Amino acid sequence: MPQVLNMDTLSHDATMALYRLDKSFIGTEDYMGLADFGNQSHKLVIRYATTYTKRLIHKKLIEAGLDPFGDSPRHDSIYHLAYKRQPAFKGYAFRVGGSDK
After folding, report:
1. Maximum average pLDDT range among 36-40, 50-54, 55-59, 93-97
2. What residues does each domain of the chain span?
3. Cα separations in angstroms, 13 against 9, 42, 50
């Protein structure tokens, strides 16, 4: 049976320990979607993404053999797919093609 961790009930120290641990998992299959990754170009997408979407972007970057902190047209296309999944981005322009369409 899957376990669910309610991050709202954790102490500050426990939360920060989980973020540090997850940061060490960036670039591996163990990444949990808590820590932020990426470069300045993709900061907005990652900052407001759900943990599921962060994991999805991370997984697709790793599967494509790309550095999670890199920046290239291939990175942009992966981030664009995730960007379209996020309702919080309605009305924002994404740099790939200049729009969210």
Report:
1. 55-59
2. 30-89
3. 12, 28, 22
Higher local confidence (pLDDT), 83 or 97? 83
DSSP string, 37-55: -S-GGGHHHHHH--HHHHH
Name every residue whose Cβ is closer than 8 Å to that of residue 58 and which is 6 or more positions away in sequence: 26, 31, 33, 37, 68
Rounded distance, CA 101 to CA 94, Å? 9
DSSP state of 8: G
In tens, the pLDDT along 17-43 reads 999 999 999 999 999 999 999 888 888
Nearest in space to 42 (alpha carbons), one of 85, 79, 81, 90: 79
35 Cα distance to chain centroid: 8
What angle (nearest 5°) sits at the alpha carbon of residue 32, between those of residues 30 and 34? 140
d(CA 21, CA 72): 27
